[in-house]
C-alpha cells in the first residue's frame, strides 16, 4: 500500500471516528430523561408529561420513516439487480466479459453504498430530532446553545459518515481492481470499469430524491392546506392527521434523499477525473499517487471540515438567535479558505510540474500542477459564492425574503409572481459563477480541470452536509415540540433554528446543483474523451442540434411529472384529512382527547411516492440509452448538452423560490 493510500484511509478513519464521537455526544441528551436524572432546578422537571409525549411521537416518526425507506430501497435493490444484468450485457458486447463483470460489480457497489449513505443520514436525523426538542426545553428561554449543538452534531454525523464511507469504499474498490489490472497500461481500462461506481450511486440517488421529494411535499401540502388554511390549526398541531407524515417526509426527502444525491455527485466527479487522468501517459508515468490526486482532495477536505466544526461547537458556540446564521455561514467560509492552501500543497506534491492531457478540441493540452491547483481552488471558491448568494435570496435576514413577506399582504397572486421573479433573479450570479469556473478550468486543464473544479466544490462536502442535515432535524424538532405541547419558549427556539435551517437547506441544494452541473460536464467530457474525439462536438449538425432542443426540454418534462405527482398525492392527503375531521369532529376541539389516525396519512404518502417516482426516474435514465441506441452518439451529445444547460437554470430558480417562500 502506497503513501497516498495510507493518507486517504487515515482520513477515512478520522472521519468515521469523528462521526462516532458526535453520535455519542448526541446520545447524552435523552429523549425522555425522567425525573431521576435531572437536577432539582432543571426546567425539564415541570414537563415530564410532555416529555412522555415526545418519546411517543419520536417513535411514531421513526417507524414511519423506516417503513418508507424499507419499501423504497426494496425497489432500488430490484432496479440495481435488473439494471446490472443489462449493464453486463451491454459492456460485454462493447468490450469483453471481464470488463463487463468488473463494471457491473462497481455499479452494484456504488448503488449499495448510496443506499447505506441515505439510510445512515435518515437514522441519525430521526434519532436526533426529539433530542433537539428536549435540549431546547432544558435551557432558559434566552439560550440556544444546547439545541443548536445537538442539531449541528446530528448533521455532522451524516456529513462525515457519508464522506468517509464513499471515499473508503471507492479506494478499496480501486485497490481490489488493481490486483487484476496490475500493469500500468491497463489502468485506463480499470478506470472505465470503476466508473460504474458513480453510475450506481447516482441511480439510487435519483430514486431517493424523486421518491423522498414526492413524499415530503405531498404530506407538507396536504397538512397545510386542510389543517392551517381550511381549519385554522397551528402548524404541526397534533390534531392534524397529516402532521406525522409531514415530519417523516423531512427525514426521507431532505435527509436521505439529499445524502444519496450528494454522494452520487462525489462519486461521479471522482470517477470522471480518474477516467480522464488515466488517458494521460504523463500522469500514468508519474505513478499511482498522481492518478489518485482527485481522491486526496476529498480526503484533505474532510480533515479540514472536521477541524473547522469545533468553531461552532466549542470556540464560538451559539447563544442567541442572531448567532445561528452567522455560525453556519462561518463554517462554510472557514472550510473553503482553509482547504485551498492544502489542495495547492497536494497538487505540487503529487502531480508532475508539467503534464500532457487529451483535449476534446485540440488533440492534447499542456497542463501543470499549478493549473490543477487553481482549478480545484476556483471550484471551492465558486461553491462558496453560490452558497452565499443562495443565503442572500433565501434568508429572512436580507431584503429579498423580507420583500416577499411584505407582498404576501397583497394576496396570493402577487406573492406567486414575486416569488417566481425572485427565483429567476437568484440564478444570475450562480450561473455566471459556473460559467467562469468552466472557462478557467477548461483553459487550464481541459475537461480534467472541470472535473477537478467539481471536486473542489465538493471538497467541503462534510460541512455542506452538516449544515444541510441540520435543517430537517430542527424542522422536525419544532414539529415534535408543538405536538407534545412543550412550553411556548421551546417552540420559539426551534422556530428560530428552523428558520436558519430553511436557508441551510437551500444552500445545500445550491451546492448540489452547482456541483452537479460541473460533474455532468466532466462526465460528458470523459464520455467524449473515451470516444477518441479530438476536434470538439459540433452542435450545428442537424441531429445534434435537434437532440439539443429535446435535451433542453427534459428538465421541464421531468419537473412537470414530479409536480403533478405531488399534486395527486397531496389531493389524496387532503381527502383523507377531511374524511377524518368529518368522521370525528372532536378532533377540531382544543379540549378533546381524540387522536387522529396518523398511519393512514403516512400510508398515503408512502404508496403515492413509490408509485409516482418510477416514471420520472425512467425518463432521465432511459433517454440517453434510447437516443444512443437508435440515433447514435451525436444525438447523445445534444441530449446531454441541452439537459445540462437548461437544467441548471431551472433547478436554481425553483430551489431558491421555494426557500424564500418558506422563510417569508
Rg, nearest Å? 25 Å
Q: Give the helix proportion (percent range).
A: over 70%
- Following the backbone from N to C, one meets helices and strands in this order, namely HHHHHHHHHHEEHHHHHHHHHH
* Large-scale geometry: globular
Task: Write down how many β-strands occur, each being a DSSP E stretch of 2 or more residues.
Answer: 2
- The N- and C-terminal alpha carbons lie at a distance of 54 Å
Q: Based on helices, strands and strand pairing, what is the structural class?
A: mainly alpha
Q: Strand arrangement, largest sheet?
A: 1-2
Major sheet details:
2 strands, antiparallel
User: How many helix segments?
Assistant: 20
Low-confidence stretches: none
Strand content: under 5%
- Global mean pLDDT: 85
What would you say this structure looks like, in words?
A two-stranded antiparallel sheet has the order 1-2. 82% of the residues lie in helices and 2% in strands. Strand 1 and strand 2 form a beta hairpin. By secondary structure, the protein is mostly helical. It contains 20 helices and two strands. Helix 4 packs parallel to helix 6. The N and C termini lie far apart (54 Å).
Concise summary:
The protein is mainly alpha-helical and 664 residues long. The chain contains 20 helices and two strands. Helices cover 82% and strands 2% of the residues.
What's the structural blueprint in terms of helices and strands?
Blueprint: H1 3-26, H2 48-94, H3 97-137, H4 145-180, H5 187-230, H6 243-277, H7 281-286, H8 288-291, H9 293-315, H10 321-350, E1 354-359, E2 363-368, H11 369-394, H12 399-407, H13 412-426, H14 428-457, H15 461-483, H16 488-530, H17 542-583, H18 598-612, H19 614-631, H20 633-663
Helix pairs in contact: 1-4, 1-9, 2-3, 2-5, 2-6, 2-18, 3-4, 3-5, 3-6, 3-15, 3-16, 4-5, 4-6, 4-9, 4-15, 5-6, 5-17, 5-18, 5-19, 6-14, 6-15, 6-16, 6-18, 9-10, 10-11, 10-16, 11-14, 11-16, 12-13, 13-20, 14-16, 15-16, 16-20, 17-18, 17-19, 17-20, 19-20
